[in-house]
Amino acid sequence: MRKVTKVAVIGGGASGMCAAIELMTHIADKSSVEVTVLEKMTRVGKKLLVTGNGRCNITNMNAVNSGYRGDVEFAKTALSRFTPESNIEFFNSLGLYTRTENEGRVYPLSNQASSVLDALRFECERLGVKFICDYRAVHLKEAVTAFSRKIVVNNRDRFDYVIVAAGGKAAKIHGTDGDSYELLKMLGHSVTPVAPALVSLNCSDFTKALKGIRSVCGVNLIIDGKTEYKNYGEIQFTDYGLSGIPIMQLSRFVSMSPSDNIQIHLDLAPDFSKEELRLYLLSRREKDTGLCENMLSGIINKQLCITIMKECGIAVNGRVNALSDEKINSLCERLKCWSIKVKNSRSFDFAQVTAGGVKCSEFDPETMESKFVSGVFCCGEALDVDGDCGGYNLQWAWSSGRTAGRSIAERINADNAQNK
Ligand SMILES: Cc1cc2nc3c(=O)[nH]c(=O)nc-3n(C[C@H](O)[C@H](O)[C@H](O)COP(=O)(O)OP(=O)(O)OC[C@H]3O[C@@H](n4cnc5c(N)ncnc54)[C@H](O)[C@@H]3O)c2cc1C
Q: What is the pTM of this model?
């Protein structure tokens, strides 16, 4: 009887669908393989629809040697095999074209995340990949007899190969709450500490009056008195603390840190050196420009200015020409370095990705196969690799998923050739 090799992909998200396509595309005899995507949610790829604010930041042209944390060395193999250019070609071959925007961010020409999901879904269907939705994998084991070796999902469904692509722990509303970790632990794998990443920060004693304000700032993260991370860009003030891309970028360092001595230092006038800012303030005083509350309205948000002035003990309805040198200096200092105490990062529910995950050193970076159980593979956010904002995480999902899919295809092709 003709052998059909059965492959399960646990998780119909970015990396899982990509792995299934890569696998089926590179199988010489497609009728010799059955690929089934087992998806917990009612539909595959739900998370993809919300990526990039509904536009899906598919990849980043700089995402090969920079922009990653966790086990970066492990990630380099897949990232340099399936580069951003290679993944763009992959999508082009599915009829999806892209545009590169600032800082190397790549989006679909349609500007719609749904077109990325459609491209993956339709290609899976065209290649005969089966989807089983509302299927939550909760158990994984290896079953070895004298005649066969299978990977068994949920003590019932038997496969020759299994790819664990069930994501991390971030944004559980989209199906991901850490099942990958539990499944792989059942096979003896370990998981490094996990924490929310690309998430906003809760800050102490935060003035709610600033809610909704956006301001371009220099941003320094200070942990136990040491600068851990520097960034620049538009931050958003919220009712609980700080958000915006520069804040999200540094959030993993906050959530991974055991310290409770964490501050964000904001430079509210990043286009001015401290001396230039001091001269600007002195010139405003000299010209006697009216009330203090309007003194800085030409360069920063008025409400922000009022908050900072109050912190410096300046009466906002006092006159600018009455400000002492001492008050001008203290205003200048605070505008260039406004220290905000950070309580913690927001929870996994609000995070875009997971820092930490399944220990990469227990997998082969060339294939994504487990070193403990042959035939079991892992890809995507489940592994201890996380990227910056800007397309880096999907790039990792595509590259690691394609590596796993291609490896299994090569293995099956070799087996088929041998058994001819
Ligand atoms: C709001 C938001 C915006 C984002 N925007 C971007 C962006 O623009 N660019 C970017 O690069 N990254 C972005 N990301 C991150 C990116 O979406 C993820 O890193 C990426 O989707 C991870 O791919 P994955 O395949 O590993 O996991 P996922 O895409 O999360 O897929 C995992 C799948 O597994 C399923 N699953 C989970 N457990 C089980 C189980 N036990 N059994 C069966 N199925 C299971 C889940 O339902 C899910 O469908 C964003 C994330 C969020 C939350």
A: 0.96
